[in-house]
Design goal:
Elements: H1 3-19, H2 28-31, E1 39-45, E2 53-62, E3 66-75, E4 82-97, E5 104-106, H3 119-122, E6 127-129, E7 135-148, E8 152-167, E9 170-179, E10 184-192, E11 203-213, E12 221-229, E13 239-244, E14 251-253, E15 262-271, E16 277-285, E17 304-308, H4 319-322, E18 334-344, E19 352-354, E20 357-359, E21 362-374
Length: about 375
């Protein structure tokens, strides 16, 4: 264990002793987001054969936030112009409350660094990025894209960028995936060891994300809620309801499993050949909804928040303050704030005590969400017409 990590754990212990929980300090992470020069990757698909689609992705690293996306553009075909999809996207906070009420860690705010990676971490096909290497780039088969009776089966590919945040006794894998069909995946994986003396106590790992969606640029983006409605009164029928998020103003909404709740981010001025506005669906990928009621934990009381993109608003635990003005989020530069929660109830596979020492490492548990294109293409380039 490094001297820096020992000091961090000692400071956490002092805070818990005085307050009963590990409060998030007022760190530089909360005040402003670092803006190092971006690194850019251009990845074409398929990797073998003629180019059909491509991604241009700029990424950066910093203490606290770890690996962030600075901007991302998608190319829908060889002759198509680059179209922006993302501005800044990042894991804004990782909140870890233990069941007994203490500790309650806000791990991003402690300014942890990314761990240095090696060839074993990168795997057979991964490429190490950075000096020292703290990011891995992988281009992988992503499985079956579709199966068709006449033309057979097509498999897809994806570009993955990931790094690993060194959060004292825990490690957080921060991963972004850019698919050949225009989809983007956001994942955080929790691994490591439970807090000392609490090795078998249940707790949560709440990945709290901030995503600036700039679909075809930062302007003219609107956010909607899409829900599937089916009740006994409909007598076997169902309907889809699409409505403006929080009546078209900054605020919050909640995920409802029975309604398959998704968000839709639409560019109101850009349409495809069918006169359909281009958009992306935010599709949750989750175990459940996290609700925590400790001090200054109001940000966890809802699953989606939307704000106008404003300078220096980076910190998820303050999102309930960011929405107070209720600015318009239709035809605006919008930011999506989303909670992807993971519950960890320890098991034997996490490790065991041997001669008074805990030996083992918790296997990775993932949470996250997808951004999936809707009407971005005039027709899919991945089908042989």
């Amino acid at each position: 264990m490094t001297i820096a990590r020992i000091v961090v754990l000692m400071l956490m212990g002092v805070v818990m002793a005085l307050t009963g929980f590990a409060a998030a300090p007022e760190s530089e992470v909360q005040k402003k987001a670092p803006a190092p020069p971006p690194n850019e990757i251009i990845q074409t698909f398929p990797t073998a054969g003629g180019m059909k689609t491509a991604w241009a992705v700029r990424w950066a690293t910093s203490s606290g936030f770890g690996l962030t996306i600075q901007n991302a553009w998608f190319k829908r075909g060889p002759k198509e112009p680059w179209m922006q999809v993302l501005g800044d996207a990042r894991l804004s906070e990782m909140f870890v409350p233990y069941h007994s009420g203490s500790p309650r860690f806000w791990d991003v705010s402690y300014n942890f660094s990314l761990i240095t990676l090696n060839k074993a971490a990168a795997g057979r096909d991964g490429t190490l990025l950075g000096k020292p290497p703290v990011v891995v780039k992988e281009v992988k088969d992503r499985g079956v894209m579709w199966v068709d009776t006449d033309t057979g089966v097509r498999r897809g590919e994806k570009l993955l960028l990931w790094g690993c945040l060194d959060a004292a006794n825990y490690r957080y894998l921060i991963e972004y995936g850019f698919h050949d069909d225009g989809a983007i995946t956001f994942r955080v994986g929790s691994t490591g060891r439970n807090y000392s003396t609490r090795e078998f106590e249940g707790h949560m790992h709440n990945g709290l994300w901030r995503v600036d969606v700039n679909l075809d640029g930062p302007k003219n983006n609107s956010v909607y809620v899409k829900e599937h409605i089916e009740t006994p009164k409909l007598a076997g029928k169902a309907s889809t309801i699409i409505r403006p998020f929080n009546k078209g103003k900054e605020g919050f909404e909640d995920w409802n499993a029975e309604r398959f709740t998704t968000l839709n981010i639409t560019n109101e001025t850009r349409k495809n050949i069918r006169k359909m506005p281009i958009s992306y669906d935010l599709v949750p990928w989750r175990m459940g909804n996290a609700r925590h009621y400790g001090e200054k934990e109001e940000c966890t009381h809802h699953d989606f928040w939307v704000t106008v993109n404003r300078k220096d608003e980076w910190y998820y635990p303050k999102v309930q303050e960011y929405v107070k003005n209720g600015e318009k989020i239709m035809n605006a530069d919008v930011v999506i704030w989303h909670s992807s929660a993971c519950h960890h109830e320890p098991r034997s596979e996490d490790g065991e005590f041997r001669k008074g020492n805990f030996v083992g490492t918790t296997p990775v548990a993932w949470s996250g969400f997808d951004l999936r294109p809707r009407n971005v293409f005039d027709r899919t380039p991945h089908f042989p017409y």
